[in-house]
């Protein structure tokens, strides 16, 4: 698994969000970006994380931040998830796993004694120039908005 570090240039990405719109890293030039990777729509931890970010979204915007989520779920899954939980930011469908691999968050995971490949929950804070300012690897799903705020 590739390892990105603070100070690295964030890898360019391009993906389709829940509205069918193409989202790229270049869209956020001049803004700070909290790019968060999560395993799966409609699971308890991922829902808690998305709702925490939703609830803190207005504060992020006031601070000059945008939020984008990425998972390997498809566009239809993201559409249902954003509608069900009123998620106001883009969720990118990375079905070919290019973005998760470029960011080094596709890796081996263990759950209930089984080993499998999946998205390792991680958030990258990217500055206005596309440089990684911070990487949050131990995500507190229920309080993720506050966790990001305290890391800035």
Q: Topology of this structure?
A:
Layout: E1 14-17, E2 22-24, E3 32-37, H1 44-55, H2 57-62, E4 65-71, H3 75-85, E5 90-93, H4 98-102, E6 106-111, E7 114-119, E8 122-126, E9 132-136, H5 144-151
Parallel strand pairs: 3-4, 4-5
Antiparallel strand pairs: 1-2, 1-5, 3-8, 6-7, 8-9
Question: Whole-number average pLDDT?
Answer: 93
Strand content: 25-35%
CATH superfamily: Glutaredoxin
Tally the helices: what do you get? 5
Span between termini = 26 Å
In total, the number of domains comes to 1
Largest sheet strand order: 2-1-5-4-3-8-9
Strand runs, count? 9
Radius of gyration: 14 Å
Largest sheet: 7 strands, mixed
| CATH topology grouping | Glutaredoxin
- What form results from the Cα inertia axes? globular
Along the chain, the helix and strand elements come as EEEHHEHEHEEEEH
**Secondary structure: helix percent:** 25-40%
Query: Mind telling me which CATH architecture this is?
Result: 3-Layer(aba) Sandwich
The CATH class turns out to be Alpha Beta
Structural class: alpha+beta
